[in-house]
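Still learning. Show one?

>
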Amino acid sequence: MTLIVNQPFPNLPAWEDLSGILVNEWNTAIAGLSLRGYIEGNTVHLSGRVHIGAARIAGVLPSHLIPGESQGLTALVMKGPSCIVEIWPGGQLVMSNFSLGLTEAQMIAEYKGDQLFFSGNYPRGVQ
């Protein structure tokens, strides 16, 4: 994870590039795709636009971005349905197949390779 250099508003919190924690064939290799986060006060801002791999999106978020309890972020499969991305208290980031009404295998068969966009804010956990 590295800070994004030359951000346009240097007086604001810097976005951290989190693409290094993606797992299971998720990627941001195409221009315009990313997984980023930053903290402002006690609020974490997380944003991602990634290619769908398996259900678990990311191994573990950095400790300063992990929520104190499970959180859900609104997500959208590009040219598809809306769904939920869950953040577990251990810091794992997971695409919720339950929010799509599918099993994990059905979700991957249907949407693998498509793009998933999610964004949201949540209270950060106790350090």
User: Anything to note?
Assistant: The chain has a mean pLDDT of 87. The chain has one domain: 2-123. The longest helix spans residues 104-111. The domain at 2-123 is CATH 2.60.40.1830 (Immunoglobulin-like).
